[in-house]
Design goal:
Elements lengths: L3 H15 L10 E2 L8 E3 L1 H9 L3 H13 L4 E7 L3 E6 L1 H13 L13 E5 L11 H19 L3 E5 L7 H13 L22 H17 L1 H16 L2 H25 L13 H13 L3 E4 L2 E4 L13 E4 L7 H14 L4 E4 L6 H14 L7 E3 L5 E2 L16 H17 L7 H21 L7 E2 L2 H4 L7 H17 L4 H4 L9 H10 L2 H11 L3 H20 L8 H25 L8
Parallel strand pairs: 5-6, 5-10, 10-11, 12-13
Antiparallel strand pairs: 1-2, 2-4, 3-4, 7-8, 8-9
Helix pairs in contact: 1-3, 2-3, 6-7, 6-8, 7-8, 8-9, 10-11, 11-12, 13-14, 16-20, 16-21, 18-20, 18-21, 19-20, 20-21
The structure holds arginine.
The site of arginine (ARG) has 8 residues, from loops.
Length: 586
Amino acid sequence: MLSLSERLSAAVGEAFEAQGLDASYGAVKVSDRPDLAPYQCNGALAAAKKAKQNPRQLAEAVKAKLDADEAFSEVTLAGPGFLNLTPSQGLLDGLLGELQQDEHQGAYRRETSEKVILDYGGPNVAKPLHVGHLRAAIIGQSLKQIFRRAGDEAVGDIHLGDWGLQMGQLIAEIKRRQPDLVYFDRAVTEGYPEESPVSVADLAEIYPVASAACKEDPGRMAEAQEATAELQAGRPGYRALWQHFVAVSQEALRADYGRLGVEFELWRGEASVHDLIEPMVDELAEQNLLEFSDGARVVRVAREDDKKDIPPLLIVKSNGSVGYGSTDLATLVERKRDGFERCVYVVDKRQSEHFVQVFRAAAAMGLYPEDRMEHAGFGTMNGKDGRPFKTREGGVLRLSDLLAMVDEKAEERLKEGDGSLTGEERAEVARQVGLAALKFADLSNPRTTDYVFDVDRFVAFEGKTGPYLLYAAVRIGSVLSRAGSSEEEALGFAAAPAEPAERELAMQLLSYKDAHRGAYEKRMPHLLCEHAFSLAQAFSRFYAACRIADEESAEVKNSRLALTALTSRQLRDILGQLGLEIPPKM
Ligand code: ARG
């Protein structure tokens, strides 16, 4: 269905066409002078310039046509040719009726569905999840839901960091500590123990030690590189040991992402494309895209008009091992093979050069046109000092500690409430509120900007926060039950907003599609956050101004219940896309 602004744009567009001008001049937007009218169209100025006409006269002619159109209750002119537009009661009533019936609840729908893969994991085996992974997970999961709502077939892939140098570093370090383990005995090639010799906690301890040792000592680095190359070449003991790393890490990751309410349909990793690399290298060579550089094989991707130097993409290192660039390129081979039409990478924006390299190489190979691969980069979550968030001791904050912290704050807030929750209920609600606080804070900032982590502000029940929206959703639901109705029943009542606060709520409800479309097209969930907040606020003004349960006129009461039900349903639809769970009470 059309949003209100689309419906108005269509009418104004026709009026421009009647003047022999392009309909696109009729684009209508929410007014920046709401005191004059809720909508405006400024197209007459540009159209008049193009047609060499007087803008005021053109706007007069457009207005004359709109005056006769039942979609408008008032059209006024301002300045050199601005049109101020007020939709009619009849138009609002009609569109609300459509909204009640719409199986997609007024959301934006694409004409054709695309098969999209979103890459928003990227945690590394042996390294615990930390706040850096949080943004990828929260934004990626939300974008996936936004895509699905728009009708795409969207799938999330965790794309584990389970290949490359880190793995060799771990193997080399364990070999130093426990050289007698069967995995290091070249005479043994099968029948390895099922039990892992290391736990996730061991890995978390071993990895930083190994990585620091390699940084300091070139000898240790050479060992790690050798181990990486042997692992990749298929040395059985190394592969078996590596399997354990992956298995124990995956188990921990499933638990962590589960706590966040973030899901991946695919649990693939860098290693899963290893066998695709050799044929890919052959293909690159055949297409004359591969060049030698200091013993390594690379693909040159720089272009003349680049503003800065884009280095070549490293495909095979001089010792035969492969790294980040090759696995990402081979993953595109895999994704294309699996029929994905679009690949979206939700990864820290500081990795943008890497994606430029990979996408250009993929396009040169003919895998995907460049516009089918997107790096939806995000900014960092900073501490109050404006630098990437760290613990008080200066370390990287683990996700589990972060969640515990937010949980605790949320519980404190809830204790200040009216005491209608039992202790057990409160713990569960605190979990939902804490997560909502964290997710909403992350999503409500434009994806590409950095933001400051401020737990007290995030869990506040007032202002543009997750807890405020959950609270609004719970309260709106209870308005219906207290009036003895249900959402389903109320969606069947005729909505006929008459009071200003009712009309404002109606106009918000009828602009959902615009917000959802913006969030979809720009890959920017914050546009949905803004809409949810405006909707909740419009509801609260409506609720303050209009009686519902004790309204005497049955017709008016039912209309208000219908508006309430529409708000409740729409808010739930949006919060679902943002990954916020609404508690039964709060
Ligand atoms: N594991 C990588 C890192 O820690 C992130 C992977 C992001 N996804 C991708 N397809 N490159 O930097």
